[in-house]
Amino acid sequence: MPEVNRSAPPTVGGWTRFVTARPRLALLAALVITALAVFAGSGVADRMGSGGWQAPDAESTYATEVLAREFPASQPNLLLLVDSGSASVDDPAVAAEAARLAERLKAEPGISGVGSYWETASPALRSEDGQEAIIAARIGGDEKTAGETLDRLAPAFAGERGPVTVSLGGPVAVQHEMQTIIQEDLLRAELIALPVTLVLLVMVFGSAVAAMLPLAVGIVAILGTNAVLRGLTEFTDVSVFAMNLTTALGLGLAIDYALFIVRRFREELATGADTRTAVGTTLRTAGRTVLFSALTVAVSLSAMLVFPQYFLRSFAYAGIAVVLLAAAAALILLPAALVLLGPRINSLDLRRLLRRRKKTATAGAGSADASPGRGWAWLGALVMRRAPVFAIVTTVGLLLLGLPFLGVKFGTADDRQLPASAESRVVQEHIRDGFPGSPGGGLEVLVEGQGSRADHADLKARIEQLPGVLRVEGPVAEGPAAYYSVLPKGEAVGEETQQLVRDLRAVPSASSLDISVTGTAAVLVDSKDSIADRLPWALAIIVVATLLVVFLLTGSVLIPLQAVVLNALSLTAMFGAVVWVFQDGNLSGLLAFTSTGDIETTLPVLMFCVAFGLSMDYGVFLISRIKEEYDRTGDHEHSVTFGLRHTGGLITAAAVILAVVMVAIGTSRVTNTKMLGLGIALAVLMDAMVVRSLLVPAVMKLMGRSTWWAPAPLRAFHRRFGLSEGESSPAVAPAAVPDRGGRGSLEDPEPTAETEEISGASRDLGEPARR
């Protein structure tokens, strides 16, 4: 039996006085800072990139940069698809117009390496039906500069041009159009998520005033993060995809934290505490849990900083910023608002009439059914009575849902991420389906050094002998550098072509020559190797941080291990669904996307870090309440049921709201964003409704009181440095009525008139008054 602290509850102290001493001034300062953040963060999306999948220290990245500098024609990123209609591309009128277009393009600032079918007569630049051909060029500069150049060129070159119709494609056009669509989709997602979230919050709280507070915290976090990202774009590359995470986590976590704090504040008011005392108790209990949760989520997201790809690092920047800002707003601004509102937090209670009718119907009955959260208590008791069954069935079910991930195939993002109507995708599909060879799938072999003609001829012969090589062109030389173009037999990023990349890098050559290989398949090989090299470090950061934070929260050795295992298990359904839906193409018609037969390499890493952090968010909420009750009573089973009863509705409500936000993000027309939104929504719901509701109580029952075990040195460490939600002792002793088994009853005492003042909506979701 743990020792029970029977000292009087601490008075309102330092931190509470700091955040509530000048509540109006604090809110005014927050309003000014938010307005400045709006100004500072304006135009942030225009400064972001739409790439970032390449490792900057990879061989393929180096070779691409050298080729773009020394041989611009070898790395075209702008393609003009010239359609001659019913005529042939060799028709004199068509050829003359194409030549004029090519000359005009050469004269444009920022354009280099212009070449065309009509200039080179290369069969790879002419469609098989003879009615389309390509003018290829390279736009210089970074992604922002290239996008601006493309916007300037499009009106002058795209559309009807005499006897031909011109459409713009190539990597620059694909990335630029993807960036534009993401910005449009993000605005639509916000317009969907905000009103739906507000309605759900009103249903949860009953009070319109209480419902507005979490939304306000979320908006502050989002606007603040946009300003942070805008500042980061001055120093490093940031992916436009990170904007989606900012919105989702900003709303989701801010609502989670505000739900937890507002609910606890209303409980304290219901016990008769004055406003400032209620705020102080709330910050010492729920506030501390919010701080633990925010640290855990931030650490999970920070693990992406170990990867060199700026696509992944961008999500770490955005995620850490929005988590810390959401927690700061919840722990500083929200208490100030609560001090000013006091009991008016329950104003504009839209369900008061319904609640009064329900109260009248049950008055004097003394029915246990009136007890708040009874449904969750019943579920907890049921799970623990059949703990082995629930543990085995739930675990097996989750593992079965994750089985499709065993067949995952990794690839690279291409134009098929875009909706079918996007112009750049249409161009790329025409090239992919109508032109000979494997457009976009060629490999370039960069050769540097002072080699003789014989050395280069010998290297070309060795390359031609490799299995998987269809044709070798070159070398094209410029000073001490030269390159070969290698056309593979297989698909652009298929396993055969990936093996060809490895074979090319292993080809022996003259000692004076240095070989580097690039191309789509080479980028994929390097990306997979880079992630595989750093993934153990990322996992170690997440696991060690989780173990440490949960130990500081609980003082147990086994609960942190349980948290890591069960959190990972909760993600199996997400990974299985990602492969079954987005790789294998199931539901592609319903969800309006095109399956490429693989998953972009960085997406599983991103989804794991985000979903694991969110799972820990809910885990901390549940464990902290169980720990608080166990410290108070020493009754393990009662504490588990109590924790589920008092947080089950909160976690479920928070998960549903976050899932709504993620599904809104999942309505994006860009496949990767759709996958991110829908996948994390599924993970969040599975974690809240299956793992937290069924698996955690079952496992804790099976572990029994050993759940709380720790060796003596660690117990001493926790007593000195650990923090938990149950710092203050309760004003009343626990009401534990012996049952037939001799243990304390799992029933809570009957609700009082004070506890009935808490929102009826919260009670329906299992949000009880404080005992």
Automatic annotation (TrEMBL):
Compositionally biased spans, kind Acidic residues: 747-757
Residues annotated as signal peptide: none
Domain SSD span(s) in chain numbering: 215-340
Keywords: Cell membrane, Membrane, Transmembrane, Transmembrane helix
Location relative to the cell: Cell membrane
Family: Belongs to the resistance-nodulation-cell division (RND) (TC 2.A.6) family. MmpL subfamily.
UniProt cross-references to PANTHER family, sorted A to Z: MEMBRANE PROTEIN MJ1562-RELATED, MEMBRANE PROTEIN SCO6666-RELATED
Protein's name according to its UniProt entry: MMPL family transporter
Pfam family, one: MMPL
Main location: membrane
Record organism: Streptomyces rubiginosohelvolus
InterPro entries reported in the protein's UniProt record: MMPL_dom (IPR004869), Mycobact_MmpL (IPR050545), SSD (IPR000731)
Spans annotated as Disordered: 725-771
Membrane topology, record value: Multi-pass membrane protein
Positions of transmembrane segments: 25-45, 191-221, 241-262, 290-311, 317-342, 389-408, 537-559, 564-583, 603-623, 644-665, 677-695
